[in-house]
Specification:
Length: 928
């Protein structure tokens, strides 16, 4: 049985060429040379093409040349008569009448179609042409209006045209100037000798003082220190603050710069003569080029006055007034510079007024020239005859009038003449009687319905009369009326106006403005709470506490269940209010949010701070009813009783807490109380009870070891710390306490091993790395300490703790500042580093800079207690009593909790319950 092959496996036919049926041809490439087979001949291909065409019933293709035409056909085409052309080259001699009629009909149709589209086509073409001419105007069209205006130029104006500059020979003069610069001269021998000796190196030291050519290394060092100081201040720039120390800020204070300029001008600092001459040439050219340039004459006049040529200045400005009679600035300058002769100044003012009767500035200058009040009012009335709508002139006339009744009459005339001036209306109301003032404000409101200032003045007027209950209604009506007129200002502008009212003493009006407008433009789906909290924060930052209080009151009324809002309001009253306003607010807060632990704690603490212990205990009792089993409330109650000296009651509270809300913190608090009272055995028993329930509480292990140390039982203490490291391997403090105990016992190797175990359990922990460095440093192994510090900074390059240790204890005095700069660049805004830099400047007796850096540190982080400690120690040596008292008060308000020195004092049982001020002084004595 034969198996039929598939198509692709079949052999190709004889003389097969791929694509031959489509007219393709066979070809041979360079890679085919050699083993490639020879292609079919031309005769074979023609035969195959003819065979293929016969099968398809088509003529043979011409891939290899078309079939040759018959010789007789070629002869027929070659010898055809050219006069007897047919087809496309026909001459048309065979046209008849019907062809002519057809051509005529087609032509009429074309003309009709062209006529139908002609109007639209011409309009489109015209539009395109106009658009092109508009975008590409011709030169003659651009100056057509100027050419037409030349017809009105008089002969005098033609004659006054300035002459053009002499441009002939400009290139030649420039070339001659360049050639003059290239001239060379013979160099003296002394110059050649000096140049010869300049590169020589002096190997001997002269015994004389020198001639100033020796290198001054002291000045180079001072320059390096100055540059380093600038870089330090630039790196320590705190966002949102500005340095106040002169010479230490890289930014320029615009206000101070302008003030310095004004002081220089007021001091009569003269400009260089070269600058004056150069400016004179420029200004003279400006006025010659354009003789009708009034400001140019004013500038030239002031230049001559600055140069001390007052008479020349007067002539210049007189010439300017003559050529520019309509220039107000020229006349003003002419009057000012001639004030030394009042008579001449009055004549000039009269001439100016004749030329410019509507110029208010000239009238005001003329009024200032008068010496008596009657003369001033006379000139002012003349000015008002020419300018009755000028508010400035009415104000000047009213200010010069002393009689109150006449002032009111003038105001009545002024508002009748200028009814759209809200300033005149408001001033008129202020000088009028209360009953009449209300009518005036109503009339002003009708005359200017878009003025919000009139509504504010009406509210302030009612506040002055004591009708505070009407203010909310007035501002509500104001908001509706202004919204109806589409003249309602933005919410931010209303807040600013409220702050202005508060600054001027209208506190109730400020509150009414806030209540009526603080929600303008805000929908309920907007983040109104966050927006209003930010508004109150901004007002507090600007010192407008009543405005902020009004915003927070509105916020509380809209979000009464928000703990954040109540805390913000309480914080404002605590910092800028009084206990009389704070305690009622906290009462409202705990009633609105009875489940808020923070509000109950704050209320109890502020009640205790107000010297009301009974009320504070009552608040805590109420909080126990709302939040049963809350450990924070129990601890606060214990703190109150301890402060009051009632230790038995504190023990009872702690016992209740251990029964109802037992936590490791409660047991630690109980043990700490017994430890502070000296009952070490009871404290140890409480710690052991806590560890039975919470064996992983590292604070209990640490306290157990510390209690054993207090009892001089070092072996038990070491065992307690060792158990703590195994029970709480992620607590670095326990490893540090164990290592310090082993170091005190003389087992430095064990201490090093303990710290290494802690570092393995807690990699990249700055406290453990720092303790390892200090261990080597205390063992006088400085090289090992430096190596460990290098490793530590690689693991924790942004640790201010490590950088401070390196700068103060592992660097030479000359390298401390560069290291401080490097640290500040890597650790941005770190209070510990700022304190370190301040101590460096303190050591160099640069007290101003040290004070500045200490201030930066406490501003950056008020919770860092060591910053307060070093700052107070600095002030004890170089500060005043007032400054020290201020620092102590700020430290008490900040209540710092962190810092190595501060925590060592605050957590010492001997210092328990001591006030912040006393702990600060103890820490200062301990700081080294």
């Amino acid at each position: 049985m034969s198996v039929k092959r598939d198509f692709l496996s079949m052999p190709a036919p004889e003389n097969y060429v791929a694509g031959l049926g489509r007219g393709a041809t066979g070809f041979t490439t360079r890679s085919d040379l050699g083993p490639a087979r020879e292609g079919p001949s031309e005769e074979q291909m023609k035969e195959m093409l003819a065979k293929r065409a016969a099968q398809l019933g088509q003529a043979a293709p011409s891939a290899y040349g078309a079939v040759d035409k018959k010789e007789e056909d070629e002869d027929e085409e070659r010898f055809q008569d050219p006069d007897n052309e047919v087809g496309l080259f026909s001459t048309g001699l065979t046209f008849d009448a019907e062809d002519d009629e057809a051509d005529r009909i087609y032509q009429e149709i074309d003309e009709k179609m062209d006529k139908r589209r002609r109007a639209r086509r011409e309009a489109r073409e015209k539009k395109e042409r106009d658009e092109y001419e508009k975008n590409n105007p011709k030169i003659q069209l651009q100056f057509a209006d100027l050419k037409r205006a030349l017809g009105s130029v008089s002969e005098d104006e033609w004659a006054a045209l300035p002459e053009v500059g002499d441009m002939t020979g400009k290139a030649k003069r420039a070339r001659e100037a360049r050639m003059a610069d290239r001239k060379s001269y013979a160099v003296p021998d002394s110059v050649i000798a000096a140049a010869h000796q300049q590169g020589q190196i002096e190997t001997s030291i002269s015994a004389s003082d020198g001639d100033g050519t020796m290198t001054n290394f002291a000045s180079i060092g001072a320059a390096n220190k100055s540059a380093l100081q600038v870089r330090l201040d630039a790196a320590s720039k705190i966002p949102g603050t500005q340095s106040t120390v002169s010479g230490t800020s890289t930014s320029v204070d615009p206000r101070g710069y302008i003030t310095a300029l004004e002081k220089n001008q007021a001091a009569g600092v003269e400009a260089p003569v070269e600058d004056i001459n150069r400016a004179r040439v420029l200004l003279e050219s400006a006025v010659k080029t354009n003789i009708h340039n009034g400001p140019g004459y004013v500038a030239l006049c002031r230049l001559e006055e600055l140069a001390g040529k007052v008479n020349t200045a007067k002539r210049v400005i007189a010439r300017g007034c003559e050529l520019c009679p309509k220039s107000i600035v020229c006349w003003e300058e002419n009057i000012r510079i001639n004030r030394d002769n009042v008579h001449n100044a009055k004549i000039i003012a009269a001439t100016a007024i004749k030329q410019n009767p509507k110029a208010i500035k000239i009238w005001e200058a003329a009024i200032d020239l008068e010496q008596t009040m009657a003369a001033r009012k006379k000139v002012t009335r003349q000015a008002l005859d020419h300018n009755p709508q000028s508010v400035e002139l009415w104000k000047s006339l009213i200010n010069d009038t002393e009689d109150l009744e006449n002032v009111r009459l003038l105001f009545a005339k002024a508002v009748d003449t200028v009814p759209l001036s809200e300033e005149l209306w408001i001033s008129y109301a202020r000088v009028s009687e209360p009953d009449h003032a209300q009518q005036i404000l109503n009339a002003a409101r009708k005359a200017i319905p878009t003025s919000w200032a009139i509504w504010v003045q009406a509210s302030r007027f009612q506040e002055q009369l004591g009708k505070v209950e009407l203010l909310d209604r007035i501002m509500d009506r104001a908001a509706k009326a202004l919204a109806k007129e589409n003249a309602m200002p933005k919410r931010e502008e209303w807040i600013h106006q409220a702050e202005v009212c508060e600054e001027e003493g209208a506190i109730a009006t400020a509150g009414a403005i806030i209540k009526a407008t603080v929600g303008w433009g805000l929908d309920e789906d907007d983040e109104r709470k966050d927006v209003w909290l930010q508004d109150s924060t901004n007002s507090i930052a600007r010192g407008r506490y009543h405005t902020a209080r009004a915003i927070l009151a509105h916020l509380v009324s809209n979000f009464p269940l928000s703990t954040t809002v109540w805390h913000a309001a309480a914080d404002l009253e605590k910092r800028h209010g009084s206990p009389e306003s704070l305690l009622p607010m906290l009462e409202r807060a705990v009633n609105a949010c009875p489940k808020s632990e923070s509000l109950w704690l704050l209320y109890a603490r502020e009640m205790w701070a107000a010297d009301k212990p009974a009320e504070a205990r009552e608040v805590l009792g109420r909080s126990f009813g709302q939040l049963q089993g809350n450990e924070n409330l129990y601890t606060r109650a214990v703190d109150f009783e301890v402060d009051a000296g009632d230790y038995d009651q504190a023990r009872r509270f702690l016992e209740m807490a251990r029964e109802t809300a037992a936590t490791d913190r409660i047991f630690m608090k109980s043990a700490a109380l017994e430890r502070q009272l000296g009952n070490l055995d009871a404290a140890l028993d409480l710690v052991n009870q806590g560890l039975q329930t919470w064996p992983g509480a590292w604070k209990l292990h640490a306290m157990k070891g510390q209690i054993y140390e207090s009892m001089s039982r070092l072996k038990e203490a070491q065992e307690a710390y060792s158990i703590g490291t195994r029970a709480s391997p992620k607590a670095p403090v326990v490893f540090i306490l164990l290592a310090r105990l082993q170091e005190r016992q003389g087992a430095i190797v064990k201490a090093r091993s303990s710290l290494d175990r802690g570092r393995q359990q807690n990699p990249k922990t700055p406290e453990l790395l720092l303790e390892a460095v200090r261990l080597e440093r205390r063992a006088n192994n400085i090289s090992a300490a430096q190596k460990l510090m290098a490793v530590a900074l690689q693991e924790c390059p942004t640790s201010g703790l490590l950088w401070a240790e390196k700068i103060m204890h592992l660097e030479s005095r000359t390298q401390r500042k560069p290291r401080a700069l490097e640290a500040i660049k890597k650790v941005e805004n770190n209070a510990q580093l700022f304190v370190t830099v301040a101590r460096l400047f303190w050591a160099e007796r640069k007290l101003d800079k040290a004070h500045n850096w200490f201030t930066k540190a406490i501003v950056l982080d008020a919770d860092y207690g060591d910053g307060w400690v070093w700052y107070y120690k600095f002030l004890e040596m170089h500060g005043t009593e007032e400054k020290k008292a201020e620092v102590v008060n700020k430290c008490v308000m900040s209540e710092p909790r962190h810092g190595e020195i501060w925590q060592s004092v605050a957590k010492d049982p001997k210092n328990a319950r001591k006030p912040v001020e006393e702990m600060l002084k103890i820490a200062v004595a301990k700081a080294e």
